[in-house]
Model the fold of this input.
Amino acid sequence: MTGSHRPLSGRDAAGAGALLLAVNLGCAAAGAAIGAAVGAAVPLALAGFGIGFFLGIAVVVKRFRDV
Done:
């Protein structure tokens, strides 16, 4: 049985990349903000960047599951 999925377009790929980047940078910014409050902005920004990468992948998979 074939699926009823439409083919992936360049617009979908660009949207997925932008969403991944937005989540990643948002987590890095949140980590930096929390780190600034406790005096460790750079380490927590890097930790937020790493967490944001995996969280961003999860968000993209959930958002573009039907594509």
